[in-house]
Amino acid sequence: MQTFHLPDVGEGLTEAELVAWRVKPGDALAVNDVVADIETAKSVVELPSPYAGVVGELLVTEGETVDVGTAIITIADDAPAPVSQPGQTEPAGEPKAASEAPSAPAAQATAKPAEPERSGSVLVGYGSGGDAATRRRRKRPEPAGGKPGGVLAKPPVRKLARDLGVELADVRATGSAGEVTRDDVVRHAEQASVFRNVSTPEWPAVREEKIPVAEAAPAVDALWEMDPARVESIPVKGVRKATANAMVGSAYTAPHVSVWTDVDATRTMEYVKRLKASPDFADVKVSPLLIMARAVIWAVRRTPMINAAWVEEEDGAKIHVRHYVNLGIAAATPRGLLVPNIKDAQDLSMRDLARALENLTVTARDGKTTPEDQRAGTITITNIGVFGMDAGTPIINPGEAGIIAMGAIRQKPWVVDGEVRPRWVTTVSGSFDHRIIDGDKISRFIADIASVLEEPALLLD
């Protein structure tokens, strides 16, 4: 009997959440067969088995967060013993009759699929990801009315369903293999209640309560916590825990300085309109964020220190100036805040950058962002305008020297040639590591971005 312990996934983390089991007791395993999906602070990955044998006991429940090194599953070396039906006995030592051999349909049900089924990243360190995916057995759909755990759905879809309060067993599946897709969950949630605010818990049916006066009244905080119907306790783990640690570390390590300026982005909006009408951009999404991304890359070239990092080394602190741009885009996803980045963005054409932004957004939305997608960023853009915000003072992503916020683009009165006219106006703001960059360089950098948004033709130089 082998015991499989949660391995170190190589991301500097000490724990992970077991999202879903892919096996059950009695299943046969080959080396690299996927046994579970686990969620680290950065992504959902498939956990392959380092042992061959038969699944014994599942030692961790789905949704449980465990430390690296925790025993999660036992795997027996020998074949599974025959399981008798309740109420039946079998004479000791008497061989099975040929008629009791598994039928052809039963054998086919346990056969492994020719086509691999993927749900996320494959954990590095236990063999080829392709092998693991190919060897994994496809789960069969449960009959109608079966237990919720039998519903076919990938981990990001399950997470989305939990966030939206949707029971997967109630969702009509439209996936090619009978699985519930992301669109199925969203459609079901919208049909269930058009006006439901999915980001806010429902209030209790009783909105007002009379609290009796006790002889010795408890403290105010204790009084609130005495009523669990009014206080929801959410464990801090996964992406939220990693984000909290990173932001606290950044805020208390790098001295932040923030600046902002209003910009007449009317010509940017006209440029975006022309790009959308161009046949060369017919198959990609174009938005003002594309021009903002190009503006940041252009401005970095003029002020390279913005793209630097403060590094503590044995012989003292150093500033590493990167002569490449791995452009991070802060993305709000069902799993929390992620910051994937576009590698070597400075080498991309306008169309290729648009394609990269679209792929980054879709991947993050579908919960498929990998740890590699989030490593080695050099500077970040956060598009707070999509939430209706005008400006902010964002916290710098660790390992970088600056983060730029793009506000909402609105029609506002603007003075042009001495006359007040309606123009498309936005606010560009940013926070920077004052250990690395002085105020004059910070101001020049933001001014350069503003100049491009005011006149995109500057990108031609």
Radius of gyration: 27 Å
How many structural domains can be distinguished in the coordinates? 3
**Proper CATH architecture of the largest domain:** 2-Layer Sandwich
Average pLDDT for all residues: 77
Helical percent range? 25-40%
By CATH, the superfamily of the largest domain comes out as Chloramphenicol acetyltransferase-like domain
Describe the largest sheet.
7 strands, mixed
Structural class: alpha+beta
The first-to-last residue Cα distance is 67 Å
Which oligomeric state applies?
single chain
How would you describe this structure to a colleague?
There is one protein chain. By secondary structure, this protein is of the alpha+beta class. The chain folds into three domains: 1-79 and 111-138, OB fold (Dihydrolipoamide Acetyltransferase, E2P); 143-235, Irregular (Dihydrolipoamide Transferase), CATH 4.10.320; 239-460, Chloramphenicol Acetyltransferase. The protein has eleven helices and 20 strands. It has helices at 104-109, 129-135, 155-164, 182-192, 220-225, 238-253, 266-277, 288-302, 350-365, 371-374, 439-454, and strands at residues 2-5, 15-21, 28-29, 34-39, 44-48, 53-58, 65-67, 71-76, 121-122, 256-264, 308-313, 316-321, 327-329, 331-333, 336-338, 341-342, 379-382, 402-406, 410-416, 419-433. Helix 8 packs across helix 11 (439-454). Mean pLDDT is 77; it is low at 80-149, 193-204 and 207-211.
